[in-house]
């Protein structure tokens, strides 16, 4: 027998409709390029998103089409989130810090038809667009003047967003369709090979947003003023663009001004209660506050993720009356799976308990798998972290590879232990990647580039801990016989071949690299040699 309750599809558009109707006075404050702050209520955003649906239809976008964005956090980006997904198309956010080559690959792989860009990313967009036959139009997020003297790439039209918006008629209502329809697409470089696309659905995004709002998730309420430093191009800014309007919290959007001075100014001027981002951002902000004697006027909490949160940061923020907490997840997990929030048993736990990645929120599940099966929750026995749940990926977009175990769990490549209270602590990583300031760097890619240098016989890249960036790459090379390249010559060889953040700052030259019995490079040995504490 079926229940007799109303059935409504879990659609992303329902969030902005609710926010406009019940929290019409709350909304978004965005920092523009010229430093000015502009406000838009959720009622404004809902109306403009319906207009934007009209623009998208005029641009030929249809149900299921991919529409790309190359943009920082702003009210306009939020309009795109709702309008694109709301009409049944797929909001494909792209990381502007990637190389032109990777962006071109991603646009082409997704077959995006239209690309919306912040004015500052227009040169990048044009560079990438030439490799994307499917792309018909580039829309610059601003006024006509912000297009400048842009020569459109061959065969592509370039428009100004506000011009299109001023000519569009608002769609009268939001279409209804199956909640399992794809809503968003985000490529991750956290895998081997080319970036791979994670395809979110309306249902998964909505349920994830509920999880984010839960008191022991990120915990959001109508009176909160939330500053997402985490970008909207990365895992939907941890779901905040959905979670905040869901509860009527105000969003403070920093635009491109992510330096500590600007972030602190926005926090204090706009009375932020909560800010969300990666540890690199928090350590720079703390250093700035310490150095200048500034203070946090209203900030109560920061949520950190993307990399481990060091105890020094937790304690540093505590001195300023700000609680630092962390969550764990990945692009494939929407991202929030765990948050470090107390249980009765951990209220009086020692200070370093804050360095654990946290416990699972309802909606997903976690296990750690050792060689013998699931590892016990004893806080000692490590295993590969695996998850499953309503907002965990089951595959990559247009990839045949089966990424789940036979019993339906996603192995993450992170290694950790779980304690008896269910708190996860990451201890290692099986993926051969380096994470610098929240961005992935492929050690394999660095090795291939180094090895293509005419003076290099063999190369290896490893992650070196870094106080600011979390990790930085160290490239170690063996010269060809009779050649003597300098570290600087190898280092500069990377420029223009990888994203700027991936260019190694250190190169070491050696006679030989350690190999195992099967000829495999022994990275553990390299770490022992190069990361050993200096005597
Ligand atoms: P991404 O898919 O780029 O968001 O990266 C996800 C990866 O970031 C995870 O698999 C972890 O390796 C790392 N990560 C995320 N959150 C944390 C955290 N709180 N502590 C340590 N590493 C984290």
UniProtKB/TrEMBL annotation:
Pfam families: AMP-binding, AMP-binding_C. It is an enzyme of class 6 (ligase). Keywords: Fatty acid metabolism, Ligase, Lipid metabolism. GO terms for molecular function: ligase activity. Residues 38-397 form the AMP-dependent synthetase/ligase domain. InterPro entries: AMP-bd_C, AMP-bd_C_sf, AMP-binding_CS, AMP-dep_synth/lig_dom, ANL_N_sf. GO terms for biological process: fatty acid metabolic process. Residues 445-520 form the AMP-binding enzyme C-terminal domain. SUPFAM superfamilies: Acetyl-CoA synthetase-like (SSF56801). Its EC number is 6.2.1.44. It catalyses: 3-(methylsulfanyl)propanoate + ATP + CoA = 3-(methylsulfanyl)propanoyl-CoA + AMP + diphosphate. Belongs to the ATP-dependent AMP-binding enzyme family. PANTHER family: ACYL-ACTIVATING ENZYME (PTHR43859), BUTANOATE--COA LIGASE AAE1-RELATED (PTHR43859:SF4). This is 3-methylmercaptopropionyl-CoA ligase. It comes from Rhodoblastus acidophilus (Rhodopseudomonas acidophila).
């Amino acid at each position: 027998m079926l229940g007799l309750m109303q059935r409504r599809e879990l659609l992303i558009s329902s969030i902005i409709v609710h926010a406009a109707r019940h929290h019409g006075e709350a909304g978004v404050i965005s920092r523009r390029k010229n430093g000015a702050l502009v406000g838009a209520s959720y009622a404004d955003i809902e109306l403009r998103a319906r207009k934007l649906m009209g623009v998208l239809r005029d641009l030929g976008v249809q149900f299921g089409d991919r529409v790309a964005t190359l943009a920082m956090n702003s009210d306009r980006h939020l309009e795109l989130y709702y309008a694109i997904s709301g009409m049944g198309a797929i909001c494909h956010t792209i990381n502007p810090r990637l190389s032109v080559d990777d962006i071109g690959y991603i646009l082409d792989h997704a077959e995006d038809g239209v690309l919306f860009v912040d004015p500052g990313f227009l040169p990048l967009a044009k560079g990438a667009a030439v490799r994307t036959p499917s792309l018909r139009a580039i829309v610059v997020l601003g006024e006509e003047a912000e297009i400048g003297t842009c020569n459109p790439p061959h065969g592509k039209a370039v428009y100004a967003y506000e011009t299109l918006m001023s000519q569009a008629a608002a769609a009268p209502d939001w279409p209804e369709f199956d909640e399992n329809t794809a809503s968003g697409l985000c490529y991750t470089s956290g895998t081997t090979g080319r970036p791979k696309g994670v395809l979110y659905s309306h249902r998964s995004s909505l349920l994830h947003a509920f999880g984010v709002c839960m008191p022991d998730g990120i915990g959001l309420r109508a009176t909160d003023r939330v500053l997402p430093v985490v970008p909207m191009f990365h895992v939907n800014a941890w779901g905040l663009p959905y979670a905040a309007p869901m509860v009527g919290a105000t969003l403070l959007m920093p635009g491109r001004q992510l330096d500590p001075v600007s972030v602190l100014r926005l926090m204090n001027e706009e009375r932020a209660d909560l800010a969300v981002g990666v540890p690199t951002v928090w350590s720079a902000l703390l250093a700035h506050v310490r150095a200048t004697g500034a203070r946090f006027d209203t900030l109560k909490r920061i949520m950190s993720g993307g990399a481990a949160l060091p105890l020094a940061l937790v304690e540093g923020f505590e001195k300023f009356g700000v609680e630092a907490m962390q969550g764990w997840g990945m692009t494939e997990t929407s991202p929030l799976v765990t948050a470090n929030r107390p249980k009765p048993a951990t209220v009086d736990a020692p200070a370093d308990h804050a360095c654990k990645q946290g416990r699972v929120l309802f909606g997903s599940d976690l296990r750690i798998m050792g060689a013998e099966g699931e590892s016990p929750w004893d806080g000692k026995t490590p295993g590969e972290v695996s998850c499953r749940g309503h907002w965990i990926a089951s595959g990559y977009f247009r990839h045949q590879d089966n990424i789940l175990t036979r019993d339906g769990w996603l192995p993450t490549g992170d290694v950790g232990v779980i304690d008896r209270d269910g708190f996860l602590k990451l201890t290692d990583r099986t993926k051969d990647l380096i994470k610098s300031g929240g961005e992935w760097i492929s050690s394999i890619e660095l090795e291939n580039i180094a090895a293509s240098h005419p003076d290099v016989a063999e190369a290896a890249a490893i992650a070196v801990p870094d106080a600011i960036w979390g990790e930085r790459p160290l490239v170690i090379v063996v010269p060809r016989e009779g050649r003597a390249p300098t570290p600087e010559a190898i280092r500069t060889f990377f420029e223009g071949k990888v994203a700027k953040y991936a260019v190694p700052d250190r190169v070491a030259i050696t006679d030989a690299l350690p190999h195992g019995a099967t000829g495999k490079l022994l990275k553990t040995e390299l770490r022992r040699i190069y990361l050993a504490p200096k005597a």
